[in-house]
Amino acid sequence: MSAPAPASARRALLIGRSPAVMEGALAELRALGVEAVGDVDPERAGDRPDAGDFDVVAIGRGVGGPVRARLRERFLARNPRVRLMDVTLHETAGRVAGALAGRDPEGVDLAAYFARIGYSGPAGLDLDLETLRALVAAHMAAIPFENLDVVAGKGVDISAGSVDAKLIGARRGGYCYEQNGLFKRVLAALGFEVDALMARVLLGQEPGRPLGRSHMTLKVTLGEEAHLVDVGFGGYGPTAPLRLAENGPQETPHERYRLTGYGPLLRLDGEAEGRWAPLYEFSGEIQLPVDYLAANWFTSTHPSSFFTRQMVAARATDEARYALYGRRLTIRRPGADIERRELSADEIGRALEDVFLLKVAPEWAPLIERAVRDDGGR
Predict the structure, then answer these.
(1) Cα–Cα distance between 98 and 349 in angstroms, integer?
(2) Which architecture does CATH list for 113-305?
(3) 0.70 cut: is pTM over it?
């Protein structure tokens, strides 16, 4: 067990396994004027005599599963006000220094988020699969997937403050970086073990012409079991967590999905109308928020990007999955035939408001007219 820290350095504790990595993280903090303590014995770090003295405890991503869960339990028992966070090396200094200054760049207003999605679960949430399922369902029913800022030429700011102002404050929707970025911060704030990943989209791509990796998805670990969670894949995303170690078909409230491993990658397939189709492939490499900036810029501005071509919206409820591409509205209800409709300009406006819960802005009129004129891009 490590010796107690001097009083002047007790505000922040870093926990990891590698002495070399710990040395680098502490050096970056010192460069920012922050003195912190490092502990590379995670199995016993929660028993430190000064465990209740820290304002911030940052747990490295090399420490996960039951060990991480025990650490969180021990530190919260000693100091219920402690700020616990999961960190990778290169984000440690910024997040710890920010948290000590009262501004965590990855923070989120949970009360505002819960009000936004209409979630009224128990005050003390259990960090289990049932809670995760409920949050995924509530998020996907309340916050629509949409790309209206992209097709309007406004671009997309995926910084935490901008995403929260748009998706929570303005009651808008967004695409993967916004949706999964917000959801990741929510899960982390609740105490879930969650990592951001990068995927290569396969859906609808021409054979022999692969796309670059551009899709943000999430891995959530519950105990020793990892799950794929994705609230940002539009009309095809899984509406429930999927077990990463499961090879066979997995049921969700809407479609079935399966995960297939090959080499270092996993491929997500979805079943529609009795046929399986590849959706995307991904590895387990953890991504930082900065890793999505270039992908977001390309996705929101490049002429070849799917999202710059036409208006897209999607939403999933208990009753149905709704998807809009241009003027084409598709409704998939569990156990029923798929409904497809071509909408007029007025009907598109009503669908955006009534189905996708978006208050239509005056500047969207040209986008709606374009959708009708281009006949959905066909």
Answers:
(1) 42
(2) 2-Layer Sandwich (3.30)
(3) yes
Residues carrying an active site annotation: 176, 215, 230
Mind listing the pLDDT tens digit for each residue in 45-95? Answer: 999 999 999 999 999 999 999 999 999 999 999 999 999 999 999 999 999
Question: Which residue ranges in the chain fall short of pLDDT 50?
Answer: 1, 5-9, 376-378
Token output for 245:
């170690």
Beta-sheet strands, E only, within the chain: 12-15, 37-39, 56-60, 83-87, 145-146, 193-201, 215-222, 225-229, 242-243, 250-251, 256-262, 265-272, 275-282, 312-316, 321-325, 328-332, 339-342
- The encoded tokens of residue 370 equal 């374009």
Fold match between domain 7-100 and domain 113-305: no
- Residues recorded for the chain: 378
**Cα→Cα distances 237→73, 229, 346, 371, Å:** 33, 9, 28, 23
The pLDDT value given to residue 10: 55
Q: Give domain limits for the chain.
A: 7-100, 113-305
Euclidean distance between CA atoms 37 and 247, whole angstroms: 42
Which overall architecture, per CATH, does domain 7-100 show?
3-Layer(aba) Sandwich (3.40)
pLDDT (0 to 100) of residue 4: 52
Are the beta carbons of 351 and 328 closer than 8 angstroms? no
What's the pLDDT at 377?
45
